[in-house]
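User: We ran a pulldown and think these components assemble together. Before we commit to crystallization trials, I'd like a predicted model of the whole complex to look at. Sequences follow.
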Amino acid sequence: MTELLGTLPRSEFGRGSTADEVTAGVDLSGKTILLTGCTSGIGLETMRTLAKRGGHVIGVGRTQEKADKAWQSVSESGVKGNVTPLGCELEDFAAVAELADKVRAMNTPIDILICNAGIIGRSKLQAIRGIEKQFAVNHLSHFILINRLLGQVKAASQGRVVIVASDAHETTLPGGIAFDNLSGATGYGALKFYGQSKLANLLTARELARRLENSGTTANALHPGFVYTNIFHNLPAFLSGPLKVLARPFMKSPAAGAATTCYVAASPALAGVSGQYFSDCNPAVPSAYGRDDALALRLWEVSEELVQDYLR
Ligand SMILES: NC(=O)c1ccc[n+]([C@@H]2O[C@H](COP(=O)([O-])OP(=O)(O)OC[C@H]3O[C@@H](n4cnc5c(N)ncnc54)[C@H](OP(=O)(O)O)[C@@H]3O)[C@@H](O)[C@H]2O)c1
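Assistant: Here's a predicted model for the assembly, 312 residues in total across the polymer chains.
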């Protein structure tokens, strides 16, 4: 399998590296970074690190108040950065479009667009506009954001789209994406649908990279590792209980969990690298579905149809 990685650059960093370590010496002054899910876990640490390196971080939280508080906590920890906190409920596609319009009105190139926000659903099916909730929040909201802001990313000297996916993409549904059951109504399992949404993240980066070929703008996806964050609080108690107690010693801290995101977002070594999947700050091979270009194209086209009212 490793032959699939060809001549991609490898880094000296690994599982235990922190976001601070992988960005040491990187100067992001003059760069604008838009980051979703900045209020907790991996996103909060990503915001702290990229602001510390001099970037202007547009930190998006579920509400303005939550985003303000997140930035306040980072600045109280001693980071003197330039952060614009913004609120957006990603379940609400009209709000996502509004967020994109606000960012467009800033009239600045976006050097790095990081799609990080995410949920793992409860065992009970929940749908938004007839679409299963994890697919809607983890994939479709970011699909809208990417499409509406792509012009600004392309306007940057080396724009990057960075999508936080997961190795959980390997535990998706048969066929990869259940196009005939995106509502979950004809069969649902929370973890399989989480896997499907994370496969959608990975395939979006892959198809976007194909569309951006030779443009200088890149798109990559990543697995942050198994990280101790709030995301597991929504799992059914029989899963979240043992996770909190038994699995915690084997989980990464948010400082290490944000390392791969920060590496893919900011490393000069990856300036020309696109359409790849990263884990532990190095290239990794996704599942067969994650390498399926026809599936990636179909997902893109179906997603366009599903959210067509919000794309322009
Ligand atoms: N932790 C892991 O082991 C792990 C492993 C693989 C992949 N990932 C991925 O890493 C990313 C970050 O997760 P995390 O572990 O850092 O989890 P987290 O601590 O729960 O952070 C998730 C962030 O997303 C935001 N968010 C969720 N739903 C939202 C919505 N509807 N509207 C606006 N914002 C929303 C959350 O806001 P609130 O605080 O307001 O909910 C929070 O800021 C996710 O994409 C996740 O799938 C995590």
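The chain is about 40% helix and 15% strand. That may be worth checking against your pulldown data before setting up trials.

User: Thanks, that helps.
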